[in-house]
Amino acid sequence: MQQGTLMRKVKSKSWKKQRYFKLQDDCMTIWYQSKRTGKTESAFSISDVETVREGHQSEVLQSLAEEFPPERCFTIVFYGRRGNLDLIAGSAEEAQCWVQGLRQLIEPRSLTFALVSCTWIRDWFQKADKNKDGRMNFKEVQRLLKMMNVDMNEDHALRLFQDADKSESGTLEGEEFVLFYKALTQREEVLSLFQEFSEDGKKLTLLELVDFLREEQLEDEGTEELAMELIDKYEPSETARARHVLSADGFLMYLCSPEGSIFNPQHRVLWQDMSQPLCHYFISSSHNTYLIEDQIRGQSSIEGYIRALKRGCRCLEVDCWDGPNGEPMVYHGHTFTSKIPFREVVSTLGKYAFKQARTLLPHPLLGAEGSWWCWPPAVQDLKGQQAPWRHWAPQGASLSPTPQELKHKILLKGKKIGRLEDTLDGPGDEAADVSDDDNGAEAEEERRRAKVGGTQHTSALQKDKETLAQALSDCVIYCKNVPFRGFQEARSHSRPSEISSLSEAKARKLIRDEGKEFVCHNAWQLTRIYPSGMRTDSSNYSPQEMWNVGCQIVALNFQTAGMEMDLCDGLFSQNGCCGYVLKPPFMRDEETLFNPSDPSSREGPSPITLTIQVISGQQLPKVANSKDGAIIDPLVRVEIHGVPADQAHQETKYIENNGFNPRWDETLQFQLHVPELALVRFVVEDYDKTSRNDFVGQFTLAFANIKPGYRHIHLLSKDGTSIPPSSLFVHIRITE
């Protein structure tokens, strides 16, 4: 259909607008326009789409289940925090056409450097070809350069244009534009490095490539085999591959590949020991997971759980309250946030608990409850699910289980009648503990309920609770909530299977006053930290100071982008993104002397020096909502997040009017006293002398995952999604 497919775009039960949707000829862009006005509303790139869900798999489409059959409904899910697109097709056949077509387009996600460049060239050509005649005159080329963040001398641009215009027609088309683009993107700094190791300046022999890998990239094992693999994988010329040599194009493709990334590819997969007790790991954790906006009036949505789980989160929060007709509802108690049925949350966790995009996450999920006033139906919903919710500890089980032992299990954190030993050995008669709560909501609700209905009603309610509390208690195995009354009290009376929750303010006071004791405590028991109740805007605190004392469950508002979530994503991007990162050895020793405020207390090697030469940037994105024709003035800031003595940042000068291929060639140097806890964050900003610099892109990783040598850093957006082919080129050295 020339005009596109007519479908309903749905935002709510009452908001259903008809729009024409069409896949552009480039097979990379979809636009949609109003049926009434014919005006194009929006467009999005296929590269922005994470997945497509069929049927009633969103709250909006579920609310329309009686009106529209599932065969006509589907949801387009985008990367990052962008809202989903719910659509209703005119027929089941049309829906399947779009679902299957989109899945085929997004499936081949192995974006090699060559493919990204090809897509990039095609996208820019189509944007700049104003009259859509398949050719570009010099005026269109000048417009293209502005769009690409390039402020180039007109004479130089004309020279490049004429060199590429082999047909001397005054326009560029097809291969001529590719030649122009290649001349424009010539990487002098990479060519210079290539020629430094190439005897003839045209190719790297196998031995020359081995020398480069050993001397510069510090690859010390199986270097010759690695060199052969790189030639086979990245050399575009069949003739060169047959001769076991690498051309300049192949060399650039290697440097832009995962093997040439600053992130050690061996640490992308599951590489750490997963047989240690749970308390020996940092665990990716979210706060009020159901919220996708603010804490007072924000929307509650199962999308909050899906997004968190897909980011590798392993500790979720569920606040469960009485709803209409006795149905449990999840929302932020005593606020105006919207509500979602508890059964939908349980069902969602059943689908997504052990999946991350297309990757399986087998290691345990912790369900951190905040309030459970609807015990009878809540327990029924839990027990109506599959085995992961019903994890009963076997006879003789350890009081300190490991992620390996708890694979595919969901642990419920909450109050418990009796001790874990009683669960293992037989029923206990111990009274239920009262644990800390994020905002005192449980105690407040208890008092409110005690006033309702008189003595007889209260007595019946209390009896009902006592009877039913055991059912919920039995679901709590390894994460019994206990109040925190000091480290000495915990050492004397608490057990490894218990957990305490602390506010960020209380945790900071303990870090300041009893840092060493805090580290020792976290070596044998779990601690959860949650944001201050004053953070009604869903802002975050820095997780680093909590990790510095070994706190395992540092809960953040995943819906809020910023430096804090960059650190979280940076730490947990390793180890297969499984949501568990093993703490350093000196933080797993119950008798440790380590105190983050005194780096000398760490037993181990002397401080190391991290030297970073920031060489260049490539195809940096424009700042959002910038004026037409505006070109960024980029600078790079490198931040070290770690123990107080290691906290530091340095930045390069800014490069005026060049976001396409800026060159800095500046060296920054940092001394790290506790490198095991350090995170390194690279930030690109658009310099502004009259106001705050604008964010362009960032990349964060743990120091332990850095590969030395000449490396590319592939930048991420504010939402943590990739923005290919934007990158930085750096040289890394680590010395003692």
From TrEMBL:
Q: Which chemical reaction does it catalyze?
A: a 1,2-diacyl-sn-glycero-3-phospho-(1D-myo-inositol-4,5-bisphosphate) + H2O = 1D-myo-inositol 1,4,5-trisphosphate + a 1,2-diacyl-sn-glycerol + H(+); a 1,2-diacyl-sn-glycero-3-phospho-(1D-myo-inositol) + H2O = 1D-myo-inositol 1-phosphate + a 1,2-diacyl-sn-glycerol + H(+)
Q: Where in the cell is it found?
A: Cytoplasm; Endoplasmic reticulum; Membrane; Nucleus
Instruction: Report domain PI-PLC Y-box positions.
Output: 472-588
The EF-hand domain extends over 116-151, 152-187
What is one term from the GO cellular component aspect held by the record?
A: nucleus
EC number(s) given by UniProt: 3.1.4.11
Q: Which of UniProt's keywords are assigned here?
A: Calcium, Cytoplasm, Endoplasmic reticulum, Hydrolase, Lipid degradation, Lipid metabolism, Membrane, Metal-binding, Nucleus, Repeat, Transducer
| Compositionally biased residues, Acidic residues | 423-444
**What InterPro entries does the record tag this protein with?**
C2_dom, C2_domain_sf, EF-hand-dom_pair, EF_Hand_1_Ca_BS, EF_hand_dom, PH-like_dom_sf, PH_domain, PI-PLC_fam
At the top of the EC hierarchy, this enzyme's class is hydrolase
Residue span(s) of domain PH: 1-107
Name the Gene3D superfamilies on file: C2 domain, EF-hand, Phosphatidylinositol (PI) phosphodiesterase, Pleckstrin-homology domain (PH domain)/Phosphotyrosine-binding domain (PTB)
Q: Give any single GO term for biological process.
A: intracellular signal transduction
- Membrane topology recorded in Swiss-Prot or TrEMBL: Peripheral membrane protein
Q: Enumerate the GO terms in the molecular function aspect.
A: calcium ion binding; phosphatidylinositol-4,5-bisphosphate phospholipase C activity
Name the major location. cytoplasm
Q: Which cofactor does it need?
A: Ca(2+)
Ranges for the region named Disordered are: 421-459
Give all residue intervals belonging to the C2 domain: 588-717
| Name of the protein in its database record | Phosphoinositide phospholipase C
Q: Which organism is it from?
A: Atrichornis clamosus
